[in-house]
Specification:
The complex is a heterodimer of chains A (266) and B (354). Chain A is mainly alpha-helical and 266 residues long. In chain A, helix 3 crosses helix 11, helix 9 packs parallel to helix 10 and helix 9 runs antiparallel to helix 11. Chain A is flat and about 75 Å long. Chain A starts with a helix and ends in a 6-residue tail after the last helix. A six-stranded mixed sheet of chain B has the order 12-13-14-9-15-16, with helices on both faces. Chain B has a domain of 200 residues. In chain B, helix 7 links the parallel strand 13 and strand 14. Chain B starts with a helix and ends with a helix. The longest helix of chain B is centred in the C-terminal third of the chain and has 19 residues. Classes of the chains: A mainly alpha (266), B alpha/beta (354). At the A-B interface, helix 8 and helix 9 of A face helix 4 and helix 6 of B.
């Protein structure tokens, strides 16, 4: 009873159990509202399909080879994974070089910062000319989209390293490589790990755009297909699947963070 | 009766300096003294009783007390005493000594000049190290001196000599900072062993030496914990910093208000630990230069205290702490210890008012 009172108290604090029950209740309430709105015809079913139809559409998309949901999911996850790995492989070393050497910072940081303002979907033609129209271009497009955000973050994380740690490693006698090995790498990577996890959320935007280039499948390509067929139930089903994948990958990144950076979690 | 004698001596000697030979040469941090030159003042007299020359001081309670020359050199330098250095022994930069002579550029309009022709030297005492403390009011440049010595900051002009050689870019002097400086992604053991790892000491040897040092600073049992707050307390984190800086047997150790962030109990235990490490040696024999605001801490730990003036910084006085080498916490109640406290407090107050 006290926990319920706490829920309505300004600045109140509730225990984990109450918080979980409240979250489930929130979801149930949303689905109920959705179901009521679509069943009662308050909103056009083409805009908001019945939730039962959305769930049923999963079966259809899995069985029907036109939609081939399982293959398309694997395709998108593959692009996302490879794009991420490529982005990390580019952004971490480049971010370190820019962050650590003033000459590189002066030469490159402003240019990279300015690329963040580039509307990437408008630049797809450039990517096609550079990398062709097959799987590779989609991975590179996604990698580029993530890397232009990640590089300034790595530089910022280098700048944020405690002065006291820099002075300590210096006074202990570390040479340049030892400073990178024992200070910069562990300090920066442990914090960039959280940034990479947060970027997962925006990466799906780029995945969908990348898959539109010479549509060869993937969840982005599938959304294009079902929209053309006016199957809003399927569109909602795909969007929910993307949210679910995003949620699971977030959990996976948290697990990896706990594995690689144990000190953050004690 | 006695008072009359003093008055007579005052009249006779107040104007001219008197040079008094010491019975044995007295070593201070800046020189070896074979005589003291004293300018008598209202508070200080030089009397000759038959063939014995005695310096007498007026105490705070207005009574007169005979002091020997060593005490005079050690603690009464605010009385216009001029130290006469033995030829060739001034500002020695022999083994294990430091000589600091940073200087900032000439004062420019509106800018505060911290150092201008500042000179300081710290000399090691063979086989037992040297513990020098720098005291002075906030902003007088105490911490800056340490940063100059360890090389993380460079003076705009002037020189720093270590072991008789000019400080090089490659010279690294370990320093314990006020802030917690342990690397949280490393365990206590990894933190303490780090200086040895950086010097490519074989892994097993580095491990064994780090374990030994962890025991000395009282952190046994915490080796595998990550060196972060609140997994470890502030006091434990500073113990790690001390252990890490001592494990590689440094010849010089700098400490910038290392216990400043600790509560009074932890601070006290760290002072005892530091003194214990210093006096028991434990294989380490460094020249320690400590910066602190705590007068009691400075007296308890040090063999030598430098008090700085500010704007620009100068060494106002150099106090040799004539207390037993073997010190424990009970020393803080010793009348001689308290006399040092009162003396330094008075001097600091005087500097503050100037």
């Amino acid at each position: 009873m006290s926990q319920i009172k706490e829920l309505f108290k300004m600045g109140g604090q509730v225990d984990d159990r109450t918080a979980t029950i409240t979250q489930i209740f929130g979801w149930a309430l949303l689905i109920l509202l959705w179901w009521t709105a679509s069943t009662m015809g308050w909103i056009n079913p083409r805009v908001l399909p019945n939730p039962v139809n959305v769930i049923k559409s999963y079966g259809e998309m899995i069985k029907d080879p036109t939609y081939n949901l399982v293959h398309n999911t694997g395709y998108s996850v593959g692009i996302n994974l490879l794009g991420y790995l490529e982005a990390i492989a580019i952004a971490i070393p480049l971010g370190f070089i820019i962050g650590l050497f003033p000459i590189c910072r002066s030469l490159m940081s402003k240019q990279i910062d300015s690329v963040r303002f580039l509307p990437l979907p408008a630049a797809t033609g450039i990517f096609i000319s550079l990398f062709g129209i097959y799987f590779g271009v989609k991975v590179h497009f996604l990698a580029f989209g993530i890397a232009v955000y990640l590089i300034p973050i790595v530089v910022q994380r280098i700048d944020e390293i405690d002065k006291i740690h820099k002075q300590t490693i210096w006074t202990l006698g570390a040479n340049s490589w030892q400073q990178v090995r024992y200070l910069y790498l562990p300090s920066v990577l442990s914090r960039v790990s959280d940034d990479i996890r947060v970027l997962v959320a925006i990466s799906w935007t780029y995945v969908v755009v990348a898959e539109m280039i010479n549509n060869q499948g993937g969840l982005g390509g599938l959304t294009y297909l079902v929209q053309k067929a006016s199957r809003s139930d399927m569109l909602y089903a795909i969007l929910f699947e993307i949210i679910l994948i995003g949620f699971l990958s977030d959990k996976l990144f948290k697990l990896l963070d706990k594995w690689f950076f144990k000190f953050k979690h004690v | 009766m006695e008072t009359n004698i003093f008055k007579r001596k005052l009249d006779q000697q107040k104007s001219a300096p008197v040079e008094i030979p010491t019975e044995e040469p007295v070593t201070t941090s800046v020189s070896t003294v074979q005589s003291v030159k004293v300018t008598p003042t209202d508070d200080l007299f030089v009397n000759t009783y038959e063939d014995q020359t005695i310096v007498e001081l007026k105490k705070r309670d207005q009574k007169y007390e005979k002091v020997n020359i060593i005490d005079l050199v050690d603690i009464r330098q605010e009385y216009d005493v001029i130290l006469q250095a033995a030829p060739g022994k001034t500002d020695s930069t022999g083994n294990k000594s430091m000589f600091v002579q940073p200087a900032q550029p000439k004062p420019t309009k509106g800018k505060n000049v911290v150092f201008d022709n500042f000179n300081m030297s710290v000399k090691d005492i063979e086989s037992r190290g040297q513990f020098t403390t720098i005291l002075g009011k906030s902003g007088c440049g105490k911490s800056t001196i340490l940063r100059y010595i360890c090389g993380v900051q460079k003076p705009t002009s002037g020189e720093i000599y270590l072991h008789g050689k000019k400080l090089q870019e490659s010279d690294r002097i370990p320093m314990v900072f006020q802030q917690y400086s342990s690397f949280p992604w490393m365990t206590v053991l990894e933190n303490v062993a780090l200086p040895l790892t950086l010097k490519n000491v074989p892994k097993q040897e580095a491990h064994d030496r780090a374990i030994e040092m962890i025991k000395i600073v009282g952190l046994a049992g915490h080796e595998s914990k990550f060196a972060k707050y609140p997994t470890l307390s502030g006091g434990q984190l500073q113990r790690i910093a001390i252990a890490r800086n001592l494990v590689a047997d440094p010849t010089i150790l700098l400490m910038d208000e290392p216990f400043g962030a600790l509560d009074i109990i932890n601070r006290r235990s760290m002072q005892v630990l530091m003194r214990k490490i210093f006096q028991e040696n434990n294989g380490v024999d460094p020249t320690v230069v400590l910066v602190t605001h705590d007068i009691r801490e400075s007296i308890f730990l040090s063999s030598n205290i430098l008090i700085l003036d500010a704007n620009p910084a100068t060494v106002r006085c150099n106090i040799e702490v004539d207390l037993p080498l073997e010190r424990d916490i009970s020393l803080k109640r010793d009348p001689k210890f308290l006399e040092y406290v009162n003396y330094i407090e008075d001097m600091m107050e005087k500097i503050e008012k100037e």
